[in-house]
Amino acid sequence: MKKILTGNVICNDQIANDIYKMQISSSHMGTIRAGQFVNIYLEDKSLLLPRPISICDADENSITIVYKVVGKGTKELSAYKTNEKVRVSTPLGNGYFIDGKKFGGQTDDYKGKTVTVVGGGIGVPPMVLLARKLKEKGAQVTAAIGFQEEPFLVEELGKYCSEVYVATDNGTSGFQGNAVQMIREKNICSDEYFSCGPKVMLRALSDFCAEKDIPCQVSLEERMGCGYGACVGCTCKVKVKTEQGTEIQQRGVCKHGPVFFGEEVAWDE
């Protein structure tokens, strides 16, 4: 059940152009799964809706979020100082399916498996916690991350990944192009792929994995209202197998996701 907690800002540092990394102390978050998000509740009463932000990393006493300043809400968030209070929800949504088939995954044991985490832009942050969890399960983890211009969180991913491949749209750092183009060009092969980022990137990765018959998990980035399924404002269309065949049904990204398998998503609908 969702709770709203009050934590202290440990740090709130700019790590790239318009990109901030905030660590929040909170010892009552409960179990956190890689791929989940939290709602941040701001003090400005004109901002009626909370800001949903992916969990980048976590320990027993804190969570770390990385966000981009894109509007009034995230602009206010970027001004928070060390030791200021911030209201934050407990983890929301379903994370990546990495705990075996009986918990919805397609892989039972990651020991000795090769996996690639694929992030695009502000979809890179949740790859840090995911990479750590997969490494703890014995997987050999590779990261393929793409940015418009300035990379970030490369060093953090390097703690858990045997290789971190970087792509930028303008070619100022690493491969020139996007993350999926880089995967194809450099032949980055794995037993399973995990991703978060723009829809066009997720679809391209899903197509790539379908060609090779490799499992692919995608975390959809949709505008969310409440963050827990009450407002039905962040729906996506998925393929559901029924007795009559395959049907296209709507699912709430915040409640049923944000993580889905690539082959589930009805990309053309």
From TrEMBL:
Pfam families: DHODB_Fe-S_bind (PF10418). FAD binds at residues 51-54, 73-74. Its cofactor is [2Fe-2S] cluster; FAD. Residues 2-98 form the FAD-binding FR-type domain. Binds 1 FAD per subunit. [2Fe-2S] cluster binds at residues 226, 231, 234, 254. InterPro entries: Cyt_c3_hydrogenase_gsu (IPR012165), Dihydroorotate_DH_ele_sf (IPR037117), Dihydroorotate_DH_Fe-S-bd (IPR019480), FAD-bd_FR_type (IPR017927), FNR_nucleotide-bd (IPR039261), PyrK_electron_transfer (IPR050353), Riboflavin_synthase-like_b-brl (IPR017938). One of its GO terms (molecular function) is 2 iron, 2 sulfur cluster binding. GO terms for biological process: pyrimidine nucleotide biosynthetic process. PROSITE patterns: FAD_FR. Belongs to the PyrK family. PANTHER family: DIHYDROOROTATE DEHYDROGENASE B (NAD(+)), ELECTRON TRANSFER SUBUNIT, DIHYDROOROTATE DEHYDROGENASE B (NAD(+)), ELECTRON TRANSFER SUBUNIT-RELATED. This is Dihydroorotate dehydrogenase electron transfer subunit. It comes from Aminipila terrae.
